Amino acid sequence: MDIVDAQVHFNLLGSLEAGMTAMDAVGVKAVLYDEYWGFDERSRILPGYELPNGAFRHVFPLAEEAALRFPERFAYLVRFDRRDPDLEELIATIGRMPQRKALRVVPWTEEGFSQFAQGADEPVFAAAEKYGVPVFVLLPGRTRLLRPYLRKFPNVKVIVDHCGVRLPLGAPPAERFADFEDVLALAEFPNVSVKWSHAPRLSSEGYPYRDVLGMLLRVVEAFTPRRVMWGSDHTQSKDHHSWAEALHYIRDTGELSGEEKAWILGRSVRTTLNWPAPAR
Q1: What contacts 159, CB < 8 A, 6 or more positions away?
Q2: Cis peptide bond N-terminal to 276, omega within 30
Q3: Which residues, in sequence order, are bridge partners of residue 8?
Q4: CATH number at residue 253
Q5: 189: in domain
Q6: What span, in angstroms and rounded, lies between the C-alpha atoms of 97 and 153?
Q7: Domain carrying residue 36
Q8: Percentage, residues of the chain above pLDDT 70
Q9: Residue 210 CB partners (closer than 8 Å, separation 6+)
Q10: Based on the structure, what is the number of domains in the chain?
Q11: CA 127, CA 91: separation in Å to the nearest integer?
């Protein structure tokens, strides 16, 4: 099976070669690389630098290197500050530069969420629609904020990050899926997909996370397997579960058909991002 991980901060695995050895051990064929070094003192995601107008321009040197050296195994996504004076030109590079496939919007702070709710990211979505760019959006517990954007930009492929819910470690089981109905309701928009990543953190059980698998089945029913993509976010979730556990509770279950697994574990992200599998 062609297994594609829709999110790994691959630079945090060490060298490319070491990370690829881990991929091979798990059975992951390809990775969507999200370059992330940490945060600066103003909670801006590194690497990058500040522009004269105060905007922060993110750069992706290690993801670009991986994509150029091993294009059959890596594609990557990018982030751009909505205040960047060259915003539209930067978004236009997605899909044109080798293996640069998508944009990620990460409001992150309470101020960022508030600005997103007020429509501050409309220029991002407008450029994404103009250039046919898929947009991953991280709005944990706030997916309702997407609705005005989805109505205004119906042609943008939008992927809801990290199951769309908060990841409340240690919370009572009843609270772990508190925002889930809002996520399921987005299935009415045909341009919306769900990235099923970090899900084992929501479980009140150990592997194979039967309660989380039950929620995945509801997502698949609402969105269809074509609009659900698996991701591990392994470097951020390995304190809770292994890369193999993140994958195999889905791959080994009898609750999904082989065709459904093929979509969730690889075909969905490839189709959404126009990232064809290499020829056999």
Answers
A1: 102, 134, 135, 136, 137, 192, 193, 194, 195, 229, 272
A2: no
A3: 33
A4: 3.20.20.140
A5: yes
A6: 24
A7: 4-272
A8: 97
A9: 203
A10: 1
A11: 7
